[in-house]
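thread from #wetlab-drylab

HS: before we spend reagent money on co-crystallization trials with flavin-adenine dinucleotide, can we at least see a predicted complex? here's what I'd submit
DV: go for it
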Amino acid sequence: MSQERRFSFEFYPTKTDAGHEKLLATAHQLARYKPDFFSCTYGAGGSTRDRTVNTVLQLEQEVKVPAAPHLSCVGDSKADLRALLARYQAAGIQRIVALRGDLPSGMGMASGELRHANDLVSFIREESAGHFHIEVAAYPEMHPQARSFEDDLANFVRKARAGADSAITQYFFNADSYFYFVERVQKMGVSIPIVPGIMPITNYSKLARFSDACGAEIPRWIRKQLEAYGDDVQSIQAYGEQVISEMCERLLQGGAPGLHFYTLNQAEPSLAIWKNLKLPR
Ligand code: FAD
């Protein structure tokens, strides 16, 4: 692949001051590796709106790494979204991760006026033309609510046609699912970069729960090995580091245009993979 590869790290906004301090310390540590950008999630249904805005502005202005807010449309009105976009644009933010999002459990019906991520991408283009580089989500193993794999591919293509510049995938542990997804959407005429989202393995029970909910499959051979380690956290982490580093190597060799690390606000698990890959920074 001729284009330059890009590397990024994702954070989530925390509820406590102590958590926020840890996030900033992690960001400073990761900034030394000169990532292309940091991103910060938007709590389900917009539940972290202010914390996401504040974190993004701090990452951009204090840590001095370009920061991309995630923005979801499921719980926000067009007026809310318009105000946020104007605020980000005025602060010099240039990249946005545009999502439909999920509602927090118990919140009931969606209150947003835009129903799907492609509607949000169109809205951002209408409001701010070409100012933002727009990232969207991709699901190599299919979004869990999609009617079918084919339908999900068509919906991904819709987001690209609405004006997305690139995509970040849900995490996965099977490189072939990524290559197959990219091949299929390219055959449908979409050539935007699709960057693998990488989840370091640090805690098996949490990972298993989360993977069930978001539709990411942990292959049996990985699951069985992780289960065999029981409470031996060190072995889980060492094995996880090896498996994920090997997968990343395969992804990059196979033409993936970069990597996006889900840090969960911790530097070490992502950095261990980064160093194993000898990424040129
Ligand atoms: P969409 O692309 O809208 O897809 C959602 C579902 O609807 C899919 O099943 C799709 O096939 C279907 N669909 C899409 N368009 C149409 C259409 N026009 N007509 C009919 N059906 C359609 N969640 C958060 O709440 N906050 C975050 O910060 C956040 N960050 C994320 C970052 C990444 C990189 C990823 C991969 C996910 C993230 N999520 C986040 C989770 C995401 O919001 C959920 O997976 C959500 O359920 C779907 O969002 P989406 O943008 O992919 O939605």
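DV: The first helix runs from residue 17 to 31.
HS: ok that's useful, forwarding to the group
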